[in-house]
Amino acid sequence: MMNQYILLMLIAGVASIGMAFIPALAKKLGISYAIVYVAIGVLIYLIWPEVLPSPLPQKDNSLVVHLTELIVIISLMGTGIKIDRSFSFRKWSTPLRLIFIAMILAILISALLGVFFLELNLSAAILLAAVLAPTDPVLAADVQVGPPNERGKSEPRFALTSEAGLNDGLAFPFTWLAIVIASQGISSSSIWHWTWFYLIYKIAGGLVIGWLCGKMVGYLVFSISEKYRLLKASDGFLAISLTFITYAITESFHAYGFIAVFIAGLTLRHYEKGHDYHQQLHSFTDQMERMLLAVLLIFFGGSLVGGILVPLTFKMALVSLGFVVLVRPIVSYISLLGNSTPLREKFAISFFGIRGMGSIYYLAFAFGEVKFEHQDALWAIVAFTILISIILHGLTAAPVMQRIGNKEA
C-alpha cells in the first residue's frame, strides 16, 4: 500500500497541476475554483478516509498554524503588490471605513451573539468575533483587483482588496484580547498591557518595519540593481524573499508580521510604480499562493466529512449564516453611509465579506497560546462559516462583479 507521505506528494502534485486548468474552467462556469477544490477534498476523504492523514485541525494544531500562516503572508504580499492606488486618507476612505467602522461593529455584534445567544464565556466569544471579523485575502481573488497596472480596477475591487490586506493584521489585537482574558482574566493591569502592547505597539511596529523593508528592497531592486544591471526580469522569487524577511524581522520585534508584509508589498509597488518587474513579482506570489491553496482546500473539504462539523448545533449554524448574510453586509453598508460610492457598488462591497484561511489561522494560533473552552464548537462554527462563504460568494462573485462593471474609480 502507498504510504501517507507518498500519497500526500501525489495529492499535492495533482492539486497543483489542477491549478493550471481548474480556475479557467471554473471561470467559464461562473463559479469560484475554491468550490471545486473543496468538493475534491470531500470526495477524496469519502473514498480513502483510512489511508489519508486526518484533516481535522485539532489533530495537529501547530501544522495548521504554520501552513495557514504561510499562505496568508504570501497572499498579503501579492495583495500589496497589485494595488496601484497610492495611499491617502481620501483615496483610501472606503477600505478605512470598512476596517475602523464595519470590522469593529462586526466584532462587537459577534461577541454579543457569542455570549448571549450561544452562551459562550467571554474569552471564547471575543475569540470567535475576532476570528470571523477579517475578510480573507486568500480566497478573494474573484473580487479583487488584477495584476499591477492592469486596467479595470473598480472601486469595489479596490476596496475589497485593500480591506483584505489591512484587516488581517488589524484584527489580531482582538485575538490577543481573547487570549489575555482567557489566561489572565479581566483586570486593569491586563487591559492596560493589552492596550499599549497588543493594540498600539504591535500595530505601529508592523507599519514602520513593513515600510522600511519595502523601501530597502525597492532601493536594491530599482536603484542599485537597475544601475548595475544585476537583476533578471524573471526573478519573481524576490517577492517571496521579501515576504519571509519582512515577516521574520517584524515578528522578532514582537510586532504584527501580517501588517508589515502587506505594507512592504504596497511600499515596494509604489517605489517605481510603472516598472514591468512588478508583473513578475505578482505572478510568482500568485503561483505560490494558488499551489498552497489547492492543497489546503482539499484538506478543508476532508475536514467537513471528517467530523469538524459534528459539534455544530442549530444555534451555531444560525450565527454562521447570520454573520455572512446579515452582520457583515449591514455593518459594512452602515460604514459606507456618506461615501460617494454608487449604491450598487456599496451593496457589492458590503456583500463580499469572504471568510477563509485567515480565520483558520487565527483560531489555531489562539488555541496554541492558551486553552479555551468550547474549542470544538468554535472550530465547527468557523468551518461552517467558511463553507457558507465559499459556496455563497463563490457562486455569486463572478456574475456580480461582471454586472457592476470594471470602470476605473
Characterise this structure.
The chain has helices at 4-18, 22-29, 33-47, 61-81, 93-117, 122-132, 155-170, 172-184, 188-228, 238-252, 257-269, 277-306, 314-335, 343-351, 357-369, 375-404. It is mainly alpha-helical and 409 residues long. Helix 5 (93-117) packs antiparallel against helix 6 (122-132), helix 6 runs parallel beside helix 16 (375-404) and helix 7 (155-170) runs parallel beside helix 14 (343-351). The termini are far apart. The model has no long low-confidence stretch (mean pLDDT 88).
Q: What quaternary form is this?
A: single chain
Radius of gyration: 20 Å
What does the largest sheet look like? none
Low-pLDDT segments, ≥5 res: none
* Count of helix runs: 16
Q: What is the average per-residue confidence, as pLDDT, rounded to a whole number?
A: 88
Give the end-to-end Cα distance, rounded to a whole number of Å: 57 Å
Secondary structure: number of strands: 0
Relative strand content: under 5%
Q: In sequence order, what are the helices and strands, one letter per element?
A: HHHHHHHHHHHHHHHH
**Roughly how much helix do the residues carry, as a percent range?**
over 70%
Structural class based on helices, strands and sheet pairing: mainly alpha
* Broad shape: globular
Strand and helix layout:
Blueprint: H1 4-18, H2 22-29, H3 33-47, H4 61-81, H5 93-117, H6 122-132, H7 155-170, H8 172-184, H9 188-228, H10 238-252, H11 257-269, H12 277-306, H13 314-335, H14 343-351, H15 357-369, H16 375-404
Helix pairs in contact: 1-12, 3-12, 4-10, 4-11, 4-12, 4-15, 5-6, 5-7, 5-13, 6-8, 6-15, 6-16, 7-11, 7-14, 8-9, 8-15, 9-10, 9-11, 10-11, 13-14, 13-16, 14-16, 15-16
